[in-house]
Structures are given as structure tokens and as C-alpha cells.
User: Which sequence fits this backbone?
């Protein structure tokens, strides 16, 4: 069988499970006794092991197998989830990530796993008899009341426990059946189906791990577990399952939950029965007045969610978006033809086409939207590691991770956010002793926030650290020759703070492998601006700093204002425009060699677009009236003087290509309805 066709699925699902492992290990550090977290970690490691073994990646399978041995002991409570164990598991996850990326890049670079294997083996074989057990998620049971077995007890939910109770009343027993199929078994799902059928003939199967759907889809290695209530004994169950071909081993034990129900939870049972009778009475009362069946609604929702998503290659979505873009361009062209020739029937058809195209465009854009949580969820681990390295205590709070952005933007914002977070931890958050001396909580706080704001998404990185001192920023910039003394004297504090975005700026006296406040900030600014966004910073001494990133929802199709300068047409993104006004030449004043106008009490600098773009002055200008487009760049505003305002139009952004890349004033190009190419202006880069 050719398994190469499954490579994409293997890589994507492995990365998802590795991210789950990272998140769950962080949860385990905070709550070492959580069995639900341990179960989730075990499931992810087990899935990676099964997939890698099937694909033939033995190194990955070997490492995850050793991880399973340790995780199994953690779930049983034989080992405590201490710092040494969690650190080792974190190192395993890091190594697995490297191994998976080696597979993705088809790299032959060897990664040594023997030290980790030795460490895991030592942990699994060590004497931890004196260590406290992780029993937080299980009821406290006297050893005389429950059978102690060598297998991991299966956790049942309330509904399943009620089934066990009912079976006990009828004289039946509850057993856990642990089945190991023969290694190399090719028809795992068929064998699992035969085993489940055989068990159903002996009693009622109330739970399987993994679930039945996963067993049918072969989403398991060579082992699975089943909980059955039956009237037959354990020997009969074992002999029945063992008789099935390719079953390597069968272990049948009395369920711990069964013993708990029998001996330790009598009071709880009586309370439950009381509650059930109360609920029945309530149900009888409700029958007198019809209402929505909440249980049915819940089940319906669950069915709707099942199987309602598919994995689609991002290249296919890009192609689909390009086709929609071409459709938008031709729709605009048809509109112009209809208006020019006054063809009523064509105009009516175009109106209907416009509605369909708009709906299609909206659907395609939504399909490309993904939550920023896909980027955010990798940062808790980074913050944890870096804060430990710097001997600081930092609490990362993430808000708005469900906020959606275009996939192309999501793929690009990870590195800028890494820079900002590392700088906040390294030079924003103080050492615990210093924070206490200032009357602060010794544990620093960093907030990573995302939210929608109009047609943009705002992402903020806030810390409650020491803030940025404007005087120090100016002094460092002077020392590095980035500004002159005359410029430094003119800077307001808010302007001085923005010097951190200058290339080569840093407040660090020595370069470290972590960061300095400002190291990489020019890269952050460049990347964000290349995405059509803006970045700004606010700070207060001893209160903290806030970096604010504004990004467009999408980089593909936008609303723009078309303007004319002489014979050339340009597009200004509508999201950057505040308003348009008409002025006379007398309204323009000059302050320090800069043309400005006074608009509602605020001084607005003026940019003559013809001068910035070096447009040949071959047209006749109206000297009595000037058109000004007021745009904003972060917190700043400017007025762009143009010859004519053409109107608002939906445009498709096209790349300028490598030959014209790097022209700061131009963000891209678009094709107009008449086939003419219009350049899209980057208002953030406009200068007089």
C-alpha cells in the first residue's frame, strides 16, 4: 500500500497533537493531579505513536512509546507529576516537533533520542513508592474496598456509572477488557468489529477507548479497552475474545468503579435516587405545559457538528480566491459597459450578478478566515520557558483567540508577536524582588489580546512592567548615531518612544540570545506594514507598555477610493480614509517648511501626491478648488491633495512582483473595469 498519499494528513494531525501536548503539559504543571489532562496527553501521544508506526517513522514511534510508559504510571498515580517529569516530557515534545519537521522537509539530519529514552526508562523504573500519589480526580477509596489491579482503571461518566448501578441491582458485574492485537495486524478495524460483536453477545458494552467511531476508522494503535456489564464471568469473556484471530493478549479485570458503586458510594446512590425522583416529579409537572425538549436540541446540535468539516489545501483556497477576484474585475467591467451603452437588460442582469458575486466573495472570504488562536496557542509554552530562563514569574493572559483573520495574514504574524512577547518578558517585566520593592505583584502579567475593529483586527501585547523611559530611548539613539542632538531636543516623549522601531536600535548594553527592548522592533514594523497594517506603542513608567497592531481582515479584495492625479489613477484603501474635503489654496499654511491645514481645530500636514510620485505636470489644474483625502496612519493624520475624486470601488489586490518589490509608497496594483492598471497607495509610507 502506498502510504505517501497520507503524508499531508500525517503532518497536519501530528502538529495538532503536538500543540495539544504542549497545552496539556502546561495545564499539568498547574494541576499535577488532573486525570482528565493526563488522559488527553496520553491520547495525543498514543495517536502520534500509532500514526508514525503506520507511516514507518520508527524513531517517532519509539519515543512516543517510552512516553506512554511514563504517562501510564502518572495516570495510575504510581508516579507524581513533578517538575522533573514534566520538564522531561516537554523535552520529548520538542524533540518530536523536530522529528516531524524533518519528515516535512525530507531532511536526513539525525536527531538523537537515546538520552531521552534513557531518561524516560529511568523514570518508569525508579522507586517512587514514597512519593505522593496523584489521586485528585478519583474518589478516595480504602484499598480493602476496591480491587487493586495492574491495569489502568477506565474513567466513566455519570451516565455510564448509572448503567453500572442498574446492572449491579440485577446481579450483573462490570468488567474492563484490555485487548492487544498482534503487531502488524492489517485489518485492525475488522478485528475490533468482531471483538465488539462477540462482547455484545455476552452483555452490554457501555464504553470503549478509543470510541467506536475511531475503532472503525482504525484511529488506534494495536490496543483498545472496553467496559462491559454482563452476567457471565471473566474467564468466559477472556476465552471468547482470545478465540478471535490476531488477538495477542486479553486482560479482564473487575471494574474499580463497580466496586466503588458496590461498597463506597451508597450514600451518594441514595441521594442520586432522591434527585431522580425529584426530577421525575418535575418532568410530570412540565408535561402539563409543553416546552422545548432540551435534550433533543443538544443531540441535534451534536449531529450537525459531526462530519461537517473537511480539510482543504490552502493552495486550492488561493486558486478559488483568485477566480473570485477575476469575477469581481469582470463584473466591474460589465457594469461600465452597461452604463456606457445604456443597455437596460444588461444593467438588470448585472445587478443580479452583483448580488451573487458579493455573496460568493463573502463565502470565500469566510472559508479563508481562521481564528488567531492558531497562532496564540503556541505562546504559553514560549512564555513559560523564557520566564524560567530569566528567573522571572510571568502569567500570560490570552483574550479574543476566537477572533478571525485571513489565512495569509495568520501565517505571517507569528514572528512579530514572538518579538513583542520576548521583549516584554526580557525588558518589560521586572525581577520578582524588584516588583515587590515597587509594591507590585511579584508575578508579572502579559496580556495578548485580539479583537475586531471595523474592517481591521487589533492585536495588543500589554505588560505591567517598568515601561519605556523616553529619555533613555533618546540617549541610546544619540549614542548609536540614529538621530542628532537637534532632533532629540524636538522630540515629544510619545515621539521618542517610537524610536524603538528604528533599524539597529536597542537599549541593551550587551547583546543576548533573548532580546533587548527594541531588538527586532524594526523587523516587527516592516513585517506588519508589509501586511498593510500598522504598529504603535504606548507606555507609562512603572505601569507597563502596550504594543498595538492594526491589521486588515484580508489582503485580497478591499474597498478603495479611486483618485486621479493628472492622467494617472490611484487607489487609496478605504480603511485608511477618515474623510474627503474641498479646500482653496488660501487654506494651506506653512509651518517649519511643512504645508498644513487647520481642520476642526487640528493641524493636519498636507502631502501633494503629484510631488511624492513624481507625476509629470502635464494637465491643467483648477486653482480655485483642491480635493483633499484625509487619511490616518496609526494615531496620526495627513491630507493627500489629488486632482479628482473618482469614487469608491471594490478592488482586487495584485502583487507587483519581485521586480517592483520594495517600492514603499506602492502597496500593490489592481485592474480596473476598463482593463487599466491602477496602483494602490500605502498611506503609511507617504512623505512630503
Assistant:
Amino acid at each position: 500500500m502506498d502510504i505517501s498519499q497520507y503524508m499531508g494528513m500525517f503532518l497536519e494531525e501530528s502538529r495538532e497533537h503536538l500543540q495539544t501536548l504542549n497545552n496539556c503539559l502546561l495545564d499539568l504543571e498547574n494541576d499535577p493531579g488532573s486525570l482528565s489532562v493526563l488522559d488527553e496527553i496520553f491520547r495525543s501521544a498514543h495517536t502520534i505513536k500509532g500514526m508514525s508506526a503506520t507511516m514507518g517513522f520508527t524513531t517517532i514511534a519509539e519515543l512516543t512509546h517510552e512516553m506512554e510508559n511514563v504517562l501510564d504510571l502518572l495516570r495510575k498515580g504510581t508516579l507524581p507529576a513533578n517538575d522533573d517529569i514534566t520538564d522531561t516530557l516537554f523535552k520529548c515534545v520538542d524533540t518530536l516537533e523536530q522529528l516531524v519537521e524533518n519528515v516535512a522537509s525530507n531532511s536526513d539530519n539525525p536527531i538523537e533520542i537515546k538520552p531521552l529514552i534513557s531518561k524516560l526508562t529511568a523514570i518508569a523504573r525508579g522507586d517512587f513508592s514514597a512519593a505522593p500519589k496523584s489521586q485528585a480526580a478519583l474518589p478516595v477509596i480504602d484499598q480493602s474496598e476496591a480491587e487493586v489491579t495492574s491495569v489502568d482503571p477506565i474513567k466513566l461518566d455519570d451516565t455510564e456509572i448509572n448503567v453500572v448501578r442498574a446492572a449491579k441491582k440485577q446481579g450483573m458485574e462490570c468488567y474492563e477488557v484490555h485487548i492487544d492485537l498482534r503487531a502488524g495486524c492489517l485489518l485492525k478495524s475488522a478485528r475490533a468489529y468482531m471483538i465488539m460483536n462477540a462482547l455484545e453477545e455476552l452483555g452490554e458494552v457501555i464504553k470503549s477507548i478509543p470510541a467506536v467511531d475511531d475503532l472503525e476508522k482504525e484511529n488506534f494503535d494495536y490496543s483498545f479497552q472496553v467496559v462491559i456489564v454482563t452476567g457471565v464471568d471473566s474467564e468466559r469473556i477472556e476465552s471468547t475474545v482470545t478465540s478471535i484471530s490476531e488477538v495477542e493478549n486479553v486482560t479482564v479485570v473487575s471494574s474499580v468503579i463497580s466496586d466503588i458503586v458496590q461498597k463506597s458510594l451508597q450514600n451518594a446512590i441514595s441521594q442520586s435516587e432522591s434527585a431522580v425522583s425529584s426530577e421525575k416529579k418535575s418532568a410530570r409537572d412540565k408535561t402539563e405545559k409543553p416546552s422545548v425538549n432540551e435534550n433533543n436540541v443538544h443531540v441535534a446540535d451534536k449531529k450537525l457538528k459531526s462530519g461537517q468539516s473537511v480539510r482543504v489545501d490552502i493552495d486550492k483556497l488561493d486558486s478559488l480566491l483568485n477566480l473570485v477576484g477575476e469575477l469581481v474585475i469582470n463584473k466591474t467591467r460589465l457594469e461600465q459597459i452597461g452604463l456606457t451603452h445604456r443597455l437596460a437588460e444588461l444593467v438588470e442582469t448585472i445587478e443580479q450578478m452583483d448580488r451573487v458575486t458579493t455573496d460568493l466573495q463573502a463565502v470565500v472570504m469566510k472559508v479563508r478566515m481562521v481564528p488567531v488562536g492558531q497562532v496564540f496557542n503556541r505562546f504559553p509554552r514560549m512564555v513559560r520557558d523564557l520566564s524560567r530562563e530569566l528567573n522571572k514569574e510571568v502569567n500570560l493572559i490570552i483574550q479574543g483567540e476566537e477572533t478571525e483573520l485571513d489565512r495569509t495574514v495568520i501565517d505571517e504574524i507569528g514572528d512579530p508577536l514572538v518579538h513583542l512577547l520576548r521583549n516584554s518578558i526580557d525588558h518589560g517585566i521586572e525581577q520578582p524582588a524588584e516588583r515587590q520593592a515597587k509594591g507590585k505583584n511579584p508575578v508579572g502579567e502579559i496580556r495578548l489580546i485580539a479583537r475586531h475593529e471595523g474592517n481591521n483586527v487589533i492585536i495588543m501585547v500589554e505588560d505591567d512592567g517598568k515601561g519605556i523611559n523616553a529619555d533613555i530611548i533618546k540617549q541610546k539613539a544619540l549614542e548609536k548615531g540614529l538621530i542628532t542632538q537637534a532632533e532629540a531636543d524636538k522630540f515629544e516623549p510619545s515621539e521618542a518612544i517610537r524610536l524603538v522601531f528604528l533599524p539597529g536600535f536597542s537599549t541593551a548594553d550587551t547583546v543576548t540570545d533573548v532580546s533587548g527592548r527594541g531588538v527586532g522592533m524594526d523587523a516587527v514594523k516592516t513585517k506588519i506594514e508589509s501586511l498593510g497594517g500598522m504598529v504603535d506603542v504606548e507606555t507609562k513608567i512603572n505601569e507597563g507598555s502596550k504594543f498595538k497592531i492594526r491589521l486588515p481582515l484580508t489582503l485580497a479584495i478591499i474597498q478603495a477610493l479611486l483618485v486621479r492625479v493628472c492622467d494617472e489613477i490611484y487607489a487609496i484603501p478605504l480603511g485608511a480614509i477618515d474623510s474627503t474635503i474641498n479646500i482653496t489654496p488660501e487654506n494651506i499654511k506653512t509651518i517649519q517648511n511643512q504645508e498644513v491645514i487647520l481642520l476642526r481645530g487640528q493641524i493636519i500636514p498636507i502631502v501633494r501626491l503629484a510631488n511624492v510620485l513624481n507625476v509629470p505636470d502635464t494637465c491643467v489644474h483648477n486653482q480655485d478648488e483642491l480635493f483633499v483625502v484625509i487619511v490616518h496612519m496609526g494615531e496620526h493624520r495627513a491630507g493627500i491633495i489629488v486632482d479628482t475624486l473618482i469614487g469608491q470601488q471594490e478592488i482586487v489586490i495584485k502583487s507587483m512582483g519581485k521586480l517592483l518589490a520594495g517600492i514603499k509608497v506602492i502597496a500593490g496594483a489592481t485592474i480596473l473595469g476598463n482593463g487599466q492598471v491602477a496602483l494602490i497607495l500605502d498611506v503609511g509610507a507617504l512623505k512630503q
In short: The longest strand covers residues 444-453.
